[in-house]
Specification:
With 509 residues, the chain is α/β, with parallel strands linked by helices. Helix content is 37%, strand content 20%. The strands form six sheets. The chain has a seven-stranded mixed sheet, sandwiched between helices. Strands 7-6-5-8-9 form a five-stranded parallel sheet, with helices on both faces. The chain has a three-stranded antiparallel sheet with strand order 3-4-21.
């Protein structure tokens, strides 16, 4: 089938409801390199005037945005459910995260603090100030089409930067709705520009923007492979991007764990949002004393999950985001090897009338649904152990000693989130100390974030940058130091410091 085109000849985004592929949510022409560069020029030109707005006034636009999102919470959540297939309850939670982010950063408009620093010399004052970087290009994924963009857009704008935003092609309608809320809140048009483009066009356009000095910061959420390309491009221009990449997030079940609680945590970590979160559970590491019992309970719980139409209250997870995401997940199933075994249902792959699921709500043939899959018997040398699957698949491994659990938790090279279930504070704190993940949960799931806590990972999961809370301010500002000397004579640091005498031979007694 030929690729759909706009009347102008431009290729089209055709965003479909993944629960009903006949329902076209929106069609939009894809922009080219010239559209991205033009947006960056406009944003770059508007930045000095935006930065001149007092920070508390910029904070008021953030406050207005949060209030408008709250007023339109149900409509925005319904659009998220329709466009990417997230269950409505989860979609409401995502919209609440946008509201929480705005609530938090409203206050930061009055707290973009610098410091006064004591000088080693008289008649001299030292200060530090935060300065906006300039223009940011923000590139976001589809799985959290409202919350994750807000993590970038809100602090970037608050700090006095302008933004060019390239959302996922799979979430074009949600992006436009969120943009409309920012506009209505008082954010000027050129301060926040949105461009629909595909990945290759975005990469080429970003390169040209960097060459022309139009972009001073990159924010990117996506795969590790794409993040590497963005990081390499930024590095050529001595920039450090804010990268939020993939994960292979472990959940350790210690021998003293509350197994029912651990099963609930694994269920939500692994299968909420159809496993399409960067923080979704990758591998359960269960102590050999509880491995078999845990696996049996998890398998039974997964069998009872209701999959299907995301508008129904009883549905635990809905469709995958789209056909492309389904194909990626099906490729992950090819990593299952003969020595692995499936727990619970042995059905895998796409849910259809010919490959049905007992607990299914709706018509599977209208959408893009996948069977929940548990793969036991995974080994450290298996590709499945170290590959992000991005779908409803959870691996299970057995461990003997705590040292082995730590090695397995870190050994795949990702470092986004991790969880441990234990009643021992000693075990919990030891795991916290030795686990390489940027986010640790104790007796809770690997997924979930709060607006005032740093979010981000290490290793293959990112470059150490953090989003959310006060920590993200360092991503969108630079520090400027000022020394103000009013002595009336030149005072030279480290050279003209007054010495204090002492008697080196003094002894007590």
């Amino acid at each position: 089938m030929p690729e759909p085109t706009h009347a102008s000849g431009a290729r089209l985004i055709v965003s479909r409801n993944p629960a009903d592929l006949t329902d076209i949510v929106v069609e939009r022409p894809l922009g080219g390199v010239e559209e991205l560069v033009a947006a960056a020029r406009a944003a770059h030109g508007a930045q000095p005037e935006w930065a001149a707005w007092p920070a508390p006034l910029r904070g008021r636009t953030v406050q207005n945005t949060g209030r408008l999102v709250a007023r339109n919470k149900e409509a925005l959540a319904g659009l998220i459910t329709r466009e990417i297939g997230k269950p409505y309850g989860e979609a409401l939670g995502e919209v609440q995260e946008v509201i929480d982010t705005c609530d938090f950063f409203l206050g930061e408009g009055r707290r973009l603090y610098g410091q006064t620093v004591p000088s080693e010399m008289p008649d001299k004052q030292l200060f530090t100030y935060r300065k906006p970087l300039g223009t940011a290009m923000v590139i976001t994924a589809a799985n959290f089409p409202a919350a994750v963009p807000s993590w970038y857009l809100v602090p970037a704008l608050l700090c006095g930067n302008t933004v060019v935003w390239k959302p996922s092609e799979s979430a074009a309608a949600v992006a436009e709705a969120l943009l409309a809320l920012f506009r209505a809140a008082g954010v000027p048009e050129d301060v926040l520009r949105l461009v629909h483009a595909d990945g290759d066009t975005t990469y080429a356009g970003l390169g040209q923007c960097l060459e022309e000095g139009l972009v001073q910061k990159i924010g990117f959420t996506g795969s590790t492979a794409a993040g590497r390309r963005v990081s390499e491009l930024a590095g050529r221009h001595l920039q450090s991007p804010c990268l939020e990449l993939g994960g292979k997030n472990p959940l350790v079940v210690a021998e003293d764990a509350d197994l029912d609680l651990a099963v609930q945590g694994a269920l939500f970590s692994g299968f909420a949002t159809a496993g399409q979160r960067c923080t979704s559970l990758g591998t359960v590491l269960a102590h050999r004393a509880v491995h078999d019992e845990f696996l049996a309970r998890l398998g039974a719980a997964v069998e009872d999950l209701v999959v299907g139409d995301p508008r129904r209250d009883e549905v635990f997870y809905g469709p995958l985001i789209g056909e492309r995401y389904l194909q990626g997940f099906l490729s992950s199933l090819e990593l299952v090897r003969p020595h692995h075994r499936l727990s619970g249902s042995t059905a895998t792959g796409r849910i259809t009338g010919d490959s049905p699921r007992k607990n299914f709500a709706g018509d599977p043939d209208t959408g893009v649904y996948a069977h929940p899959t548990i793969v036991a018997g995974v080994r450290p040398e298996d590709e499945l152990y170290r590959t992000e699957t991005f779908g409803p698949l959870v691996s299970v491994m057995e461990y003997g000693s705590f040292d082995e659990a730590v090695r397995l938790a870190n050994g795949h090279g990702y470092g986004l989130s991790a969880a441990i279930y234990t009643d021992s504070p000693r075990t919990a704190f030891a795991f916290r100390e030795r686990c390489s993940a940027g986010m640790i949960s104790v007796n809770n799931s690997t997924v979930g974030a709060e607006a005032h806590l740093p979010f981000g990972g290490n290793g293959l999961s990112g470059n150490g940058s953090r989003q959310s809370g006060i920590w993200v301010l360092d991503q969108f500002t630079s520090w400027q130091s000022v020394n103000w000397d009013y002595a009336g004579t030149l005072q030279r640091a480290q050279m003209d410091v007054r010495e204090i005498g002492a008697d080196p031979g003094f002894r007590l007694g």
